[in-house]
Structures are given as structure tokens and as C-alpha cells.
Amino acid sequence: MKPYNHTTYAILGILTTDCRSGYAIKQMIDQSLNHFWKISYGQIYPTLKLIVDEGLANVRSTADDSRPAKNEYELTAKGHEVLKNWLEEPIEQIPVERNELLLKLFFGRHQSNEKTLFQVEEYKRKLETRYATYTAIEEGITKHKEKGADTKYWLFTLDYGKRVTEAGIEWCNSTLEQLMDEEE
Amino acid sequence: MKPYNHTTYAILGILTTDCRSGYAIKQMIDQSLNHFWKISYGQIYPTLKLIVDEGLANVRSTADDSRPAKNEYELTAKGHEVLKNWLEEPIEQIPVERNELLLKLFFGRHQSNEKTLFQVEEYKRKLETRYATYTAIEEGITKHKEKGADTKYWLFTLDYGKRVTEAGIEWCNSTLEQLMDEEE
DNA sequence: GCCCTCATGTAATATGTTACATGATTTG
DNA sequence: CAAATCATGTAACATATTACATGAGGGC
């Protein structure tokens, strides 16, 4: 089976939800996958073209002469197959998360304790904001009475985000303490 | 102050440790920064050239006619300044970690429970391996009696890796349980 | 003699972001 | 009627990986 890149699989997957246009895909990513994935329009539209060229989806264009094109995509049987095959493949490796704060901290001795403290505090604040966002999304999903077939899985990914973020916040607290102990 | 990319700052920082050559930089990254940063040779050598062109480091080449070039780099005063300035800048944003497992899990309803379980188990195994690696590196550093000025900061970054990895493992356990509960 | 580590570098390719261009439709 | 949102798309640029090319020196 011909391999595609992650962006392609992500879009194939999103096309199985109610999102049918490039614009809707972008929204879905920004709203529901933003804690572990993101794609820009610069990738979405070219990839959608590729997907159609490869016969993984059909496009229906509502382009009368007058109004502008609006394209709705729908997976073909082949598209579904490619997606399912990818889902089954074991993931190659856990990605190395590039973390700018840790990079700076690694070279911390070239900086005053005070400034290092500030950086960690900033980071903690950002993590807290993130955590709050996850909680809000989670509540939004659970309140929605009619649970879709996807709901269960979406909550799993949110739970992951929350747990990892929380661990990060705790690390900030511990690190801040240690930095302050050496302050005197 | 002229901005450079993250790769450049990472290399500037590493040049403040004992690593003076492209090869040594690569080793340092693979051994000590691998849990939050990585760079390939394809980036290192061109970036080193840039760093010299910009006057951020000097290069001393031990290139007699006979033996192959070995280049040793040393930061200039300007290089140190650029590094310090970057260290002080607050980080723009926490990066979105692209997580392939979560992406697959998000589309989990298109797959049997059994296969989803397998994926999460695989992921857990990888996290456990990673955790063990961190512990080993940590021990290596703490055993080393003569503690360098950097040691403290390096342990901070390792602690982060351990905490976040541990949270991931706990999430795996919780998710596996939930998936199995619905098995019957 | 062969393999491993040391050591540097480039070219092709892949991937991704940002800025730009365009215009309809809805909402206040 | 102005602003926001809906909607598609491209081009320039930035970043990063992979494969390749080359060769010295040391240990088995």
C-alpha cells in the first residue's frame, strides 16, 4: 500500500466526521485536535487535491457561474481502506517534542536566577491556561447529550492533554521551589 | 538584535559546553538533549557556517595538507551576547506536540477495540523504555562526583522528561482499563 | 583486512508556515 | 454599510530529514 504523509492521513480521518470542506477541516483541527495536531491552509488545500488525484475522495463542487466554488469532499471506498490500514500500523516512534523552555533552561547557568525564575513562571502560566482550555472543551463535549460515536475517543485524547499538562505544572512548582531555595 | 532560528541558538548554547566541533555537537544533542531537542548533520554544518559568517564564533581549522579538516568553534563576545539575549526573551508559545498515537485514537471508532488496545499498549511500552533511559542518564550525571555548573539545569530538564513520561504511562493504564471494560 | 568511530559536508527531497490575493455572505 | 465570517487557493520562504560522498585512525 502506497504510503502518504501524516497530514494526508489526518485529513482522511477528519473527512469521516461531518467536515466536508477545506474550511471545515481547518476549523475542526483548531477546535478539537489543537492539543496534539495542527495544519495550515497551505497544507490542507494542496493535500485535498492530492487526495482526489489519488482516488481517495471525490469532490463535488457547487460552482455555478455566479457563486464561488465550494468544494465538498467525500471519501471513496479506497480512501476508507487507506485510512483503516494506517490506523492499524503501529506508530514508528514517539516524537521528540521540541521544547524551547527546556532548551533555555539547559543553558541556565548563563543567566541570573531571577530571570530563569521568570521564564519558568511564564511557562507555568501558559500551562495553566492550556489546562483550563482542555477542561472547557471537555465540558462542552460531555454536556452535549447526544453522544456521537466519536465522543469516547475524543475524551481520551483530552484526558491525555490534561494529565500531561498537569504533570508539567507540577514540574514548574518543584523547579521554582528549588530555584528559590538557592536564592539566598 | 537580529533574530536567528532555534537551531542557531541551540548550537550557540552547546558551544558554551565543552563541545567544539560539529561532530561533538551532534553527540551532545543525541546524548543529553534528546528528550526535548534534536538536530541532524544537515542542519548543524550549514548553521555553523552561518554562525561564523555572522561573527558569533571563530573557527580554528586543524587542516594540514595531509590530515582531514577538523574544525573547532569558539564563541565570540558577540556570540555570547546573542545567546544571552535569546535566553532572556520569553518563549512565544508552548509548541503543539504532534502526537501520532492520539491522532489515530481520535479516529478510533473506525477500528476494532482489540486493535486500539494494541496501539495503546505499544505506546505504553515505548514510554516505559523512555522513562528507563531518563533514569539511566540521571544516574550517570549524579554519580559523576565533580558537578559542573551546568549539572543542576540538566537535571531539571531530565526531571521534566520523567514527570511527563510518567503521566503518559498513567494515562495509558487508565485508557486501557476503559477500553477493556467495554470489551464484554 | 574489516568494521567501528571520528569527522565534514552537500544535494535532493519533504514538510510546513506566512503572507498574499480574492470575493461572497451574514450579522450588527 | 461596515465588519466578521465563510471560503479557496498560491507563492515565497523557512525548516528539516535522508541519502550520499569522502576519508582518517584504531581495535580485533
Describe this structure in words.
Two copies of one chain form a homodimer. The first copy, chain A, is mainly alpha-helical and 184 residues long. Chain A has helices at 6-14, 22-32, 41-53, 77-88, 100-106, 113-143, 151-181; strands at 57-61, 71-75. In chain A, strands 1-2 form a two-stranded antiparallel ribbon. In chain A, helix 1 packs across helix 3 (41-53), helix 2 (22-32) crosses helix 3 (41-53) and helix 6 (113-143) runs antiparallel to helix 7. The longest helix of chain A has 31 residues, at 113-143. At the A-B interface, helix 1, helix 4, helix 5, helix 6 and helix 7 of A face helix 1, helix 4, helix 5, helix 6 and helix 7 of B. Chain B binds a DNA duplex (28 and 28 nucleotides) through residues 5-7, 21-23, 39-46, 49, 67-71.
Main attributes?
homodimer, about 180 residues, mainly alpha, two-stranded antiparallel ribbon, 7 helices, about 60% helix, elongated, DNA-binding
Q: In terms of topology, how is this protein built?
A:
Two copies of one chain form a homodimer.
Chain A: H1 6-14, H2 22-32, H3 41-53, E1 57-61, E2 71-75, H4 77-88, H5 100-106, H6 113-143, H7 151-181
Chain B binds a DNA duplex (28 and 28 nucleotides) through residues 5-7, 21-23, 39-46, 49, 67-71.
